[in-house]
Amino acid sequence: MHNPCCFFFLLCVVLPTCLRPVSCEEDGWDGVVVTASNLLALQAFKQELVDPEGFLRSWNDSGYGACSGGWVGIKCAQGQVIVIQLPWKGLRGRITDKIGQLQGLRKLSLHDNLIGGSIPSTLGLLPNLRGVQLFNNKLTGSIPSSLGYCPLLQSLDLSNNLLTGTIPYSLANSTKLYWLNLSFNSFSGPLPTSLTHSFSLTFLSLQHNNLSGPLPNSWGGRVLLVVLITLCCIMLFCLIRKRATSKAENGRARAGGTSIEKGVPPVAAGDVEAGGEVGGKLVHFDGPMAFTADDLLCATAEIMGKSTYGTVYKAILEDGSQVAVKRLREKITKGQREFESEVSVLGKIRHPNVLAMRAYYLGPKGEKLLVFDYMPKGSLASFLHGGGTETSIDWPTRMKIAQDLARGLFYLHSQENIVHGNLTSSNVLLDENTNAKIADFGLSRLMTTAANSNVIATAGALGYRAPELSKLKKANTKTDIYSLGVILLELLTRKSPGVSMNGVDLPQWVASIVKEEWTNEVFDADLMRDASTVSDELLNTLKLALHCVDPSPSARPEVHQVLQQLEEIRQERSVTASPGDDPNII
Length: 586
Hints:
The chain is of the alpha/beta class. The protein has three domains: 7-226, Ribonuclease Inhibitor (Leucine-rich repeat, LRR (right-handed beta-alpha superhelix), Alpha-Beta Horseshoe); 233-374, 2-Layer Sandwich (Phosphorylase Kinase, domain 1), CATH 3.30.200.20; 380-581, Orthogonal Bundle (Transferase(Phosphotransferase), domain 1). It contains 14 helices and 24 strands. The strands form six sheets. Strands 3-4-6-7-8-9-11-1-13 form a nine-stranded mixed sheet, with no helix packed on it. α7 runs antiparallel to α10, α7 (395-414) packs antiparallel against α14 and α13 (531-548) runs antiparallel to α14. The model is unreliable at 1-29, 215-278 and 574-586 (pLDDT under 50).
């Protein structure tokens, strides 16, 4: 049945080979001036545009500055233009056909301007083109079918223009295309089945068009028809101005119960100065690394979560490597000098059960990013509660996580003199081997007093805050032990501390059950299946957890005592420990 409809699909099957970001420019100038053919093409490009704010004044006729950082929005390699990046510049006019002479062009980013006219078919002649970002303009006409023959095209965003015609079947030929956004145009005709069967696409947005056609039955579980969804995939664009943040928020498209959120870029506009030089400061803690500031700011990213401290993104760099980027909220951090002094200490902390900070970035307008190792299995909270209770987690895995957590906290307390102050299962991250690592440690040192008070209040709302913090207002090692005890109870019960049970929190609920001598009712049903072999371990761990959450701080154990008891509990079983389980690692 062919009914006219609008489509917005989030593809569920994400192949590893698809997850490649749009290629970003190399840092610095290689000393080669722009070629004659590229210079002519750039001059034609400028001539066809109206530049009311004068951003293109630097594009002088000599061309000597084109590849050395003197021309706004231009990046080169070996005299070939590889990036044209001019978003948010108020440009009018049209895109010249001469753009097809830029044979080295990898990225064309002209989004959020007022450019009209048609998309030049000569774009399809560019063998190195990876990314085309032309959304939020006034483009008319149809999509040239030649675009489908760019062999390296990965990202094409033409959303929110005035485009018409049909979607060319040739786009399915782009075997590397993983991001396609054609929403908010006036496309008509059938939805190309060859496109919907593409195995490379991980994002396809076609809403607010006049397309028709059924969904292929073969998609089955590969497609989710989104009725109410907030999309978490975003692009971290280079050279975005500060006002991009507010415009992006105001530009969220909503219709018919379906919404798209482009997200807030981890770094706001002005982070890369005109001419392409980084306006901020990127500091690595482990010596030179594979990514530069430009690489980081150009990475494909998706929002992983938000907290009192800020927003965390998963960033995929050009070489395919992944990092976690935390953008700290504005106005909650200390001044730059004090911030840098403290973060330089945190960045040197290394332990198998503590999440390593790899770098930090300070933007020219006060933006602060922290770069960490990416943990593929996410947080302990999502591991326990995100997959549903039907996902079984055995006791050895939970005990291993508990020991890892105790080791990491012991190291922070004893070796670094750091009180975490916000220890929750959301701040315990798991790597590919389910090794636990403590995150967000020491961030209180970077924050203002008011910000730290908010963090403590949030921890209380989530069920991890020690009762004395309502008066003390400042965390200490004993409040960390309380939070550790709550997480141990979480591992035993698989209940979220933030969910009230008959009006009481998790420690109170467990204590009441134990008092009534219904202890077995406390444990997660998965654990009770092996009760004959692990019952003593469960009971001893429960006693330890209740000891940690004792209302009296002085009655709680020190972290080294917690670690010792966990090791003794585990040693009760004749299980050969793996090298990563060495209890002597602290």
